[in-house]
Amino acid sequence: MPLWNQVVALLRESIFAYAQLCHGNLGWGILIVTFLARLALTPLGIRLAKMARLQQRAMERIRPELEALRAKHKGNSRKIAEETHRLMGREGVSMVPAAALGGLAQIPILVALYSAVRQVATVGGRFLWIGDIAKPDFILAIVVTGITLIASAAGSTSQSANQTVLLLLSAVVTAAVLSKMAAGIGLYWGLSTLFSTVQGILARPERGAHAA
Question: Lowest CB count within 10 Å: 141, 151, 183, 186, which one?
Fold first, then answer.
């Protein structure tokens, strides 16, 4: 895939170029390119987050009717599918959320960036307290896990005990994964998570209501 390789190479060389502006520090190069890439995707990310929230509210609005028709046509999956399609069409709710399709469009860019970061991280080098960004760093793993946990909690719409357990389980899994990853990838992960959190906050409808 020549085009894919070219995109990854462009991002990789951009990291090296920005690192040179920071006295050859690859950690800063990773953070700068990640910041610029996520910044470029932020307008789309906020729009998609708003669309996802609208979709969620629409589904909550028609949930009683969905449950009623499922009970009415219990055992008849074809009839349930037909009635569900008719109900969602009448209420203007898409069967395939546009936010999901838009989110898929961002994936190649983020995967290419991740690939570039992974390649750069293998070069190694110091960054702040991290002795070598090519190796895992326990403190960074804990910091990024904390950021991920806060982001997950901020994006959650439920305060149930089950949700709390899921959040804690997610934190444990994140910490386990990061403890095995190069610190350079951890830098990318942490900054990307911060951007996702900010996008979610900016997309909240309450923000506009308070501003009014």
Answer: 151
